[in-house]
Design goal:
It is found in: Membrane; Secreted. It contains five helices and 13 strands. It is α+β, with helices and mostly antiparallel strands and 376 residues long. Helix 2 (40-57) runs antiparallel to helix 3.
């Protein structure tokens, strides 16, 4: 099937249309009149708050009203203006919620002696057959793709970087209680029981210190599992992207359990879709204009038709360098206008802008090496 979707944070909120919520009207940020009375920054900030409320509404028993109000107030007061400093700066410009760690906290020390790490290779899909055009993946084809659950309900995705840490979007964890977030690996069909699936609790959530809830700049976060996972012939992590590479003109592969159309239900099975990656200039020539920062990456067709969508937030956008079978995580599904709309490509956090930040925070984990041999 064709996977028409948008990159995600905002799309999740479009589900509110099904229940007549007027809050979903705040998501149409790119369609707002340029001279309208509501500043775009306010709309985006409200969208982050609405995302939190939407996830809470999924729970069988929602927290007390007073607790929810406090969470939203924290989000509203902690959003910061865009910054000109580099993405990997450690200067704290945002007041992090209680479930995140401030940038001034020292990086975790290297274990001494280190754990007995097994030899493993990152980024190799578990099947060489490629599915093109937005269809279901093979079972465990992308074993590093993780499902995030809040109170036991699926709401976002992430990518396994090593045996103890995942990468996801800040908007998927910002303002949420880490005690209610859990991670599921080796899931494929949400309606079927898989003996191989692995569930972990979350011991720590680290949002990027410069995450901006008003424009989704630096929409990237790290999740630490409560206990490491063990790699085997099925389970292995994704590879980190090549530093400094723009990925312009390359083909991106997005995976997730998100909706296959705007306002539709999320998918039961893991899906994939291929999209061309745009240059920054071309992305800014889209209808987004200057909303696109250097920390963002765009992927999609001018005519639309293929994209990520609501429910795909936090999941990976992969690229495979020529002559290899190595899947690198080039982007994290972040936001967009609608799903697969013409003139509105999917927007992702550009992962290779955060290499040093990620390495410093995950140095205690067991890493898998990249495959050195080339393929014909």
């Amino acid at each position: 099937m064709t996977w028409s979707g948008l990159p995600i944070c905002l799309p999740l909120l479009l589900l509110l249309l099904l229940i007549g919520s007027t809050a979903s009207q705040q998501l149409n940020i790119s369609a707002l009149p340029s001279g309208g009375p509501t500043p775009t920054s306010i709309v985006l900030k409200q969208s982050q708050n609405t995302f939190v409320q939407w996830v809470l509404s999924l729970l069988p028993q929602r927290p007390a009203v007073a607790t929810e109000t406090a969470t939203v107030a924290t989000l509203s007061s902690s959003a910061t203006a865009p910054t000109e400093t580099p993405a990997e700066s450690t200067t704290t410009t945002t007041q992090a919620p209680t479930t995140t760690r401030k940038a001034t906290t020292p990086a975790p020390p290297t274990l001494s002696p280190p754990r007995n790490c097994s030899d493993c290779v990152c980024g190799v899909a578990n099947i060489q057959k490629r599915i093109v055009g937005g269809q279901e993946t093979e079972v465990h084809q992308y074993p590093w793709v993780a499902m995030l659950l809040y109170g036991g309900r699926f709401y976002c995705a992430g990518s396994l970087l090593n045996d103890q840490f995942l990468l996801t979007a800040s908007h998927c964890v910002y303002g949420f209680r880490k005690e209610r977030i859990s991670v599921r690996l080796l899931e494929h069909d949400r309606k079927m029981s898989h003996l191989q699936k692995i569930d972990r609790k979350v011991s720590e959530v680290i949002t990027h210190p410069k995450y901006n809830a008003r424009n989704y700049d630096n929409d990237i976060a790290i999740i630490k599992l409560d206990e490491p996972v063990e790699f085997n012939e099925v389970l292995h992590p994704v590879c980190m992207p090549t530093p400094g590479r723009s990925f312009k003109g390359e083909t991106g592969v997005v995976t997730g359990w998100g909706a296959i159309k705007v306002g539709g239900p999320t998918s039961d099975t893991l899906q994939e879709v291929q999209v061309p990656i745009l240059s920054q200039d071309d992305c800014r020539k889209s209808r987004y204009g200057n909303k696109i920062t250097d920390n963002m990456l765009c992927g999609g067709y001018d005519e639309g038709g293929k994209d990520s969508c609501q429910g795909d937030s936090g999941g990976p956008l992969h690229i495979v360098p020529n002559g290899t079978r190595e899947f690198q995580i080039a982007g994290v599904v972040s936001w967009g206008e609608g799903c697969a709309k013409a003139g509105y490509p999917g927007v992702y956090a550009r992962v290779n802008r955060y290499g040093t930040w990620i390495k410093n925070l995950t140095k205690q984990a067991c890493l898998c090496h990249q495959e050195t041999k080339k393929i014909k």
